[in-house]
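cache lookup: miss for this entity combination. No prior model stored, computing from scratch. Input as submitted by user K.M.:
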Amino acid sequence: MIKAGIIGGAGYTAGELLRLLINHPEVEITFVNSSSNAGNPIVDVHEGLIGETDLVFTDELPLDEIDVLFFCTAHGDTKKFMDSHELPKHLKVVDLSMDYRLEAPEHEFVYGLPELDKEAISKAKYIANPGCFATCIQLALLPLAKNQLIHENVIVNAITGSTGAGVKPGATSHFSWRNNNISIYKPFSHQHVPEIKQSLRKLQGSYNSEIDFIPYRGDFARGIFATVVLHCKANADSLYLMYKEYYADAPFVHVSEKNIDLKQVVNTNKCLVHLEKHDDKLLIISCIDNLLKGASGQAVQNMNLLFGLDEQTALKLKPSAF
Amino acid sequence: MIKAGIIGGAGYTAGELLRLLINHPEVEITFVNSSSNAGNPIVDVHEGLIGETDLVFTDELPLDEIDVLFFCTAHGDTKKFMDSHELPKHLKVVDLSMDYRLEAPEHEFVYGLPELDKEAISKAKYIANPGCFATCIQLALLPLAKNQLIHENVIVNAITGSTGAGVKPGATSHFSWRNNNISIYKPFSHQHVPEIKQSLRKLQGSYNSEIDFIPYRGDFARGIFATVVLHCKANADSLYLMYKEYYADAPFVHVSEKNIDLKQVVNTNKCLVHLEKHDDKLLIISCIDNLLKGASGQAVQNMNLLFGLDEQTALKLKPSAF
Amino acid sequence: MIKAGIIGGAGYTAGELLRLLINHPEVEITFVNSSSNAGNPIVDVHEGLIGETDLVFTDELPLDEIDVLFFCTAHGDTKKFMDSHELPKHLKVVDLSMDYRLEAPEHEFVYGLPELDKEAISKAKYIANPGCFATCIQLALLPLAKNQLIHENVIVNAITGSTGAGVKPGATSHFSWRNNNISIYKPFSHQHVPEIKQSLRKLQGSYNSEIDFIPYRGDFARGIFATVVLHCKANADSLYLMYKEYYADAPFVHVSEKNIDLKQVVNTNKCLVHLEKHDDKLLIISCIDNLLKGASGQAVQNMNLLFGLDEQTALKLKPSAF
Amino acid sequence: MIKAGIIGGAGYTAGELLRLLINHPEVEITFVNSSSNAGNPIVDVHEGLIGETDLVFTDELPLDEIDVLFFCTAHGDTKKFMDSHELPKHLKVVDLSMDYRLEAPEHEFVYGLPELDKEAISKAKYIANPGCFATCIQLALLPLAKNQLIHENVIVNAITGSTGAGVKPGATSHFSWRNNNISIYKPFSHQHVPEIKQSLRKLQGSYNSEIDFIPYRGDFARGIFATVVLHCKANADSLYLMYKEYYADAPFVHVSEKNIDLKQVVNTNKCLVHLEKHDDKLLIISCIDNLLKGASGQAVQNMNLLFGLDEQTALKLKPSAF
């Protein structure tokens, strides 16, 4: 059994991770660290786990007792932790924060998008789990980059569920405000763009254009739905071949020739991708569940790869569908 | 022109009051007091007023300049204010808090439910505006009390929109939690029950039973939908006559012989009431918009009565319907 | 491997059944019959299954090739089918319609609520799967009946998601109408009441009172949330003991001493039950996912019992939580 | 009093028109024609009007008795009607269908976007009321065209509420499907694009580029929220001046220097426009209520202009805000 510890256990991604790991046949949860909730049963915070676990939050960190450590910490806090602690040699790490997503000589984290480089992840020790928007947008673009086809700015409009903004209440997550509402934030300046570019450059050395990304706040809780537009000379048939070939070995990415909608992926670790050519414009639609393929599901997928398990272990989830 | 001041101007009921008064042909808003927002334009806080007003929040209280003062304050704060200020003699007051809803020798507030005693309101100086649940439930029951027909516990189940819980963010108003969720709170102990009983006793001296009220949190922003059940010997036809007679002079209450649904009243000052007899059980359905007939709409209705205006002035609102 | 066939494969309960059976380690889906969709891939109708199955709807009925037949048919259609077909001797049946829920000398269906009589189900050949409201309300009441404690009318208010009304579009399932709306239907006359009474009588021979049930249409897709009220002399502690004892062997029913909310069970096969005493009134809250414990999840649970499998096989589902 | 008739009275736009005209001080509704509903009270179909009107649908067409005729007909049906009927000479027409939005020698309809040419509308007899998406997108672009600033393709992503798809139930308006879902339709080929181009060309003779428009289905009932992106050399300050000058005489269009969200316009006839420069990219956000400024509100605005009334008559609506 793989023994797992979680830091930052009270947030949404930790809850989702727990909901996955509890049914993982090869994992035992050793501790869930949350200073603010130490001593409280996990089910008091993570609804939907009632009857499934007796775990209690702890403020201890028995790192020697675990094989893998998940950081579900706020951005910046993983780095603080890594800088101030010496981790046991054998310990593997999956970091859900954005602290180590950009490669740098100072750290040895591998970017954990299995559809980009599964091999590297399998051999890694520390994984930087990708951002939710970043995952959804990359999965729309990777096959193009692989085929050296991105030569201009890419136009991205993507709408996210409220869970993407975390558990902390605020004005834009207030039900009375958000219900039936639509708005945008951080246009052309979202923090996930750099990691997208980093991946595209890996596949297409010549890649040198912008991701013109407008993020929308949606009035739903789960999911990201993205439209991606760029000019492209290839025709629809050859593009479909390209995408299907690229994702041949990716069990969670499905290329659909029919139009898709967000709820087809909610509560799954899937990404659906749909392509349409309109004259010389290529429209790519992709969607994921932001808490699963966009966060904790991908974290488990990475953990499976780190430990040589089948990538899909504990991730064949019943879609909620409605 | 009636000059109006508002205290507690940053909350939901104040926003709704402003949205109504801005279009009131006989009212001029003199000041909107909010210590936390002093100096900020009102449209910064109350969305949907953009382009309609240049008013700015103030921390001043020029009580001498106004004819009517609306308290949109938290429960307890109106009383604190009244105890610590001497109001100008001529000044009329409409208090939306619950501080003075129960009659007492110590105060001269009149309970502001026009369908209970329009006459008293018209002659009053200070009005205690009823609670939202209290309004919805009373309007379901008043004709029965008037006809001395309540002889046993009344079973009430009523579901409210999130705006009933106010602007302050919290766990149960977080979009991620509340969206698509249902829950209850304060079963059999909601603070609006005493004012309901007080009204019933006024119409039916013998009234001496319980209101068994379970409040539900709904996953919508506006409205209250209540079902009220009690045993009653009268038949449906005579009950409809009773209700229609009782509300003959109530321009906002409509007795519907067809089944009703919540959105028929949203964004209006109406209350719809529907009756069904099932054997000896009488089922009464009533619904209102909690921010209008349940709060600020009723406050304007009361103000209209206080100043001898047509009750419906500024309250013939376009229903949102969807 | 258990070979399964499904009749009425295009509806919501069939979709949910497929989403469960696809991940069931002991089941192989042999055919999905839908005359209206014959020849179409299942993923064209049941979204969220993309990438998980290549199954195609058929209008054939190879009953000899299967071990278990699920009826996801409209009410009335199972009976028509049973009256006009001779089923292979060995074939087991789980009927999700309401045709055989009431016991009668003319048929040999066993009522499939495992928490009522798991033993009988295990030995049965034909199962009548309970109704969704009926499941939620019975699980709130069975321990009381077992302890001979129901002596008066039981007041039930329960709100259901839109999937309860099926896939066929109509006025009350139109998004523009239902979004943010609340209404009731069939008060005191819902078709699930007789099966509830039948179960209560089995446990409490003296049971002879009414279920005063008002069903509400909720503005969400999945779930049923019920409040159940009756007078009861037992105190809270002894009632909790009673309920926990009754459900000691029921892996999907959890008795919670904390208040509960609907989303704690959505996308699970669980039922949560919470109790509160208020003076002599007992309030029981129970909630389920109407498509899982209220339909297809319970159908799989019954199938597991029919074939001697662990009751929870393929039903340890990740809650959607949000 | 202006006497008004309505054809196609059972749809959403007719309902909204009725909700407006009932409170219009200068209008009397003479008839509401609906062959399918002839004889039924209007409140049976248009919820939210209960208590406000005793009107009954008719299948008669007393065109001689009215001053203005509103077509709330399906696309194609207005033209059929016009081709087969001779209208009384004095009769003015506002057509909410798309039949006459494109100017042509064969007809004398004037395109009814007051912010484009209020003068022409005031003098017109027949008005072609603009499309909902078309209104929202044009109001984002008109000041640019007026200043000859559109020199390349314009990227538009806009999301609409379900009421935009009408009252007829269907797969994509089913609550169970649409709730919490996002999808797109008709990318780069929406039928409103030609009328947008026609208007831009009127203001900017040199305009010769594309509107790359992706329409999204939102999981809310009312409203359209659009983002519009193009390259533009002008800086933000000068653009704000330009927009404010262009809309100086437009009482319903408000240019906001703060970010905006959809619910700020819901249940109003307003359009909000917000601008941001990001390097050389200009982002314009605009939003309207699709049933008001996008349909029936604009129809009343046009009627006001046709009859020389204040443009805002009966259109100073209380925003629903929540």
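stored under new cache key. Chain D has a mean pLDDT of 97.
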